[in-house]
Write a structure and sequence with these properties.
This protein has 335 residues and is α/β, with parallel strands linked by helices. The chain is built from 10 helices and 14 strands.
Length: 335
């Protein structure tokens, strides 16, 4: 019999979800991975039981919560590609918003009222050049960000009406890989800057592109706040501990307060690997803001969160170490 408190982790076979499962296990919890494996990886499920299921199946959610005596839910199961959300918004609203509503329905049926949402800095839209605070106006500019903002509004109502304790953790750019090398950032197709650049070096991406060099930023390329996935996982455990103590939750930025441009990231990759990333310049993508950099002060004050692994060299080093293990070199020239 498992005497660890069980936490349901939807999307637990994905990039961030699997890192959170590892962090939960190391903190004394039993992470129950709930995933339909549409984009997750079966070999990332290492730290607790697995339930194959869809968040839109409220009855299965309820049964799973009861079977495992779950005390809280961490919700990572969502589509998250900005460009795709612009091209196919219905896909994002059906899965991200309607799916979360079904998940919450299942939780209410099971009497589970602690919830942590994987949210995003995309809720702020074009927030400008200053550090973004949680009190800044949320005006998302793509359906992905809008779907997450809608869920945050739903959770605010659920706190008031049903007594939920709910944290909405607004990630900026999740990056890096677990230092052990057993899990890392892997998608098909891969769209994120750092892993895509590294795959280009390995010969797996023939058309690595920079999207836009005419932004109002110091070098014309988009600026983002990069936070290590291990730090994100640690923040979720801190939020969970507060919920277990009766905290009602709230919305918090998870970032570092420092932004790096696309060109700066590519320069850091070249320094770590000793190779320049081959690249072409393309126009901006619809829905991409020029700059997103968090003010992390509220998470520090309320969650006692400090980003301990999110300096750029650590992010690049851990990501490159994982990619070298996970992706055999396709061409001898990429060695």
């Amino acid at each position: 019999m498992n005497d660890r408190p069980s936490v349901l982790v939807t999307g637990g076979a994905g990039y961030i979800g699997s890192h959170c499962c590892k962090a939960l296990f190391e903190a004394g919890y039993n992470p129950v991975c709930y995933d339909n494996l549409s984009t997750g990886h079966r070999d990332y499920i290492k730290w607790g039981p697995f339930v194959a299921g869809d968040i839109r199946d409220a009855a299965k959610v309820t049964a799973t919560l009861r079977t495992h005596d779950v005390v809280a839910v961490m919700h990572f199961a969502a589509f998250s590609l900005v460009g795709e959300s612009v091209a196919d918004p219905q896909k994002y609203y059906l899965n991200n918003l309607a799916g979360t509503l079904a998940l919450l329905q299942g939780m209410r049926e099971a009497g589970c009222f602690r919830f942590i949402l994987s949210s995003t800095g995309a809720v702020y839209g074009n927030a400008g050049r200053e550090l973004i605070n949680e009190t800044d106006r949320c005006e998302p500019i793509n359906p992905y960000g809008t779907s997450k903002w809608m869920i945050e509004r739903v959770l605010s109502d659920y706190r008031d009406a049903y007594g939920f304790g709910a944290f909405c953790l607004r990630y900026f750019n999740a990056s890096g890989a677990d230092v052990s090398g057993v899990i890392g950032e892997q998608r098909d197709p891969e769209t994120h800057l750092i892993p895509r650049a590294m795959m280009a070096l390995q010969g797996h991406v023939p058309d690595f592109s920079i999207f836009g060099d005419d932004y109002d930023t110091p070098d014309g390329t988009a600026v983002r706040d990069y936070i290590h996935v291990t730090d994100l996982a640690a923040a979720h455990v801190l939020a969970l501990k507060l919920l277990m103590q009766g905290h009602r939750g709230g919305s918090f930025n998870l970032g570092t307060g420092h932004g790096f441009s696309v060109r700066q990231i590519l320069a850091a990759i070249a320094q770590e690997t000793g190779r320049e990333v081959p690249q072409v310049m393309k126009p901006r993508r619809a829905g991409d803001p020029a700059m997103l950099v968090a003010n992390p002060g509220a998470a520090r004050d309320v969650l006692s969160f400090e980003a301990a692994h999110s300096d750029l060299p650590t992010i690049i080093r851990t990501a490159w170490a994982w990619h070298r293990r996970a992706h055999p070199l396709k061409t001898a020239a990429s060695s």
